[in-house]
Amino acid sequence: MSEFIAPLEIMIEAFRRLPGVGRKSAERMAFGVLDMTPEETERFTEAILCAKRTIRPCRICGNITAAEVCPICSDAGRNKKLICVVEDSKAVISFEKIKEYGGVYHVLGGVISPRSGKGPSDLNLSTLPERITESGAEEVMIATNATVEGETTAMYVSRLIKPTGVKITRLAYGIPVGADIEYADKLTLIRAIEGRREF
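RESULT FIELD:
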């Protein structure tokens, strides 16, 4: 039998579905919601629903956006000849925070992971070769995480785009193997970009 009443237990379990949220954190979040006024609760739920309704993938790169094309792809000042392939939008945010990367992105929406039942067809890959050719890209920097799945995905992307003749580089790893890009500090990420190698 649960120690909490059913509606509260349902809310706790809903919060536990979020990545990195354990039982204790989920309980604190649930009680935090209970402590809100009805107006605050309305604003909280509306913010979630609004985000789910309006956020979509950019039709060019796959990054999250509220418009058809994301602000990065719309920015005429970005170097469209350099494309950085990343696993998800969190990695884009990490690169943008350091303000050292002036190229554009291609967001895969995950990695190849047979264990999770995710193959190449589940990723945003089919448009990449055509995008490289149409944009006249000179370099594709593969910046997947240094995990088994990240390396497998990097190898697959490399083989997929090799026929385009573009220069393919891999992010250098001052970033430790097994670590996620989103947790890298500014200096480590800058050095990883500067030390990228041909792949």
